[in-house]
Design brief:
Layout lengths: L4 E6 L5 H12 L2 E4 H14 L3 E2 L2 E2 L1 H7 L5 E6 L4 E6 L2 E2 L7 H10 L3 H14 L5 E5 L2 H5 L5 E6 L2 H14 L6 H17 L12 E4 L5 H10 L4
Parallel strand pairs: 1-8, 1-9, 2-8, 9-10
Antiparallel strand pairs: 3-4, 5-6, 6-7
The structure holds cytidine-5'-monophosphate.
Cytidine-5'-monophosphate binds next to helix 2, helix 4 and helix 8.
Enzyme class: transferase
Main location: cytoplasm
Pfam families: Cytidylate_kin (PF02224)
């Protein structure tokens, strides 16, 4: 059976990872959440004191990039891979609002992007992969067999993220989450290096108007293997 590459891009909290996980599971493919990689680099920068309220030591972060090891390890109990930063499982830490508040600034740095893009291309070189992010269909796999671009209204997205964070016991307000979603979208679409943009050949889905199930079925129909 022929293996293909599926690229899923879009704004934050549009349900990219839910769709990508379902597709990977259905097809027996590897799922890669590239946002987790940018989040792990951000967590590293926070832990080293390179980034904090009102300051950001980009030089030091770039200098220490070679010491950052990112590995995905499949967790059979969860059914998906978890992010390891220098051999430590950071899956929980990278999902906090603090990391969300800094991640888009870290993702603007070209040196960070080229390191992660190279690793992502390596992971996908044998196809049979579903990857989600912001630049997968445009930069990481411009020749992907199927490209999906997901959107949803900011309010729908903030509500989704807010519920997720609440479930985890994170003490955030809805306004804080909405502000974060809007800020990240702004930075992600306006940065110089690999801005978030729909690839010409991507198929767009507005997640606030159709159900998850409907969307999954529509995407499946687009896959011809
Ligand atoms: O997907 P998630 O919302 O976890 O991504 C977190 C952030 O990482 C995004 O807001 C964006 O700034 C950055 N990112 C990126 N390129 C990717 C994936 C994520 O710039 N391919």
């Amino acid at each position: 059976k022929k293996k293909i590459t599926i690229a899923i891009d879009g704004y934050s909290s549009t349900g990219k990872s839910t769709l990508a996980k379902e597709l990977a599971h259905h097809l027996g493919y590897v799922y890669v959440d590239t946002g987790a990689m940018y989040r792990a680099v951000t967590l590293y920068a926070m832990q080293k004191g390179f980034i904090g309220i009102g300051f950001f030591d980009i030089k030091s972060l770039v200098a220490s990039l070679p010491t950052i090891k990112l590995v995905f390890k499949f967790n059979p109990d969860l059914g998906f891979a978890e992010m390891y930063l220098n051999d430590l499982n950071v899956e929980k830490e990278i999902r906090t609002i603090e990391v969300s508040n800094y991640v888009s600034q870290v993702a603007e740095i070209s040196e960070v992007r080229s390191k992660l893009v190279e690793q992502q291309q390596e992971m996908g070189k044998n196809k049979g992969i579903v990857m989600d992010g912001r630049d997968i269909g445009t930069i990481v796999f411009p020749n992907a067999d199927l490209k999906i671009f997901m959107t949803a209204s900011p309010l729908t997205r903030a509500e989704r993220r807010f519920k997720e964070l609440q479930k985890k016991g994170d003490q955030v307000t809805f306004d804080e989450v909405l502000k974060n979603v809007e800020q990240r979208d702004y930075i992600d679409t306006h940065r110089e290096d690999s801005p978030l943009v729909k690839a010409k050949d991507a198929i767009e889905f507005d997640n606030s108007t159709i159900s998850k199930q409907e969307q999954f079925e529509k995407v499946l129909k687009l896959i011809h293997i």
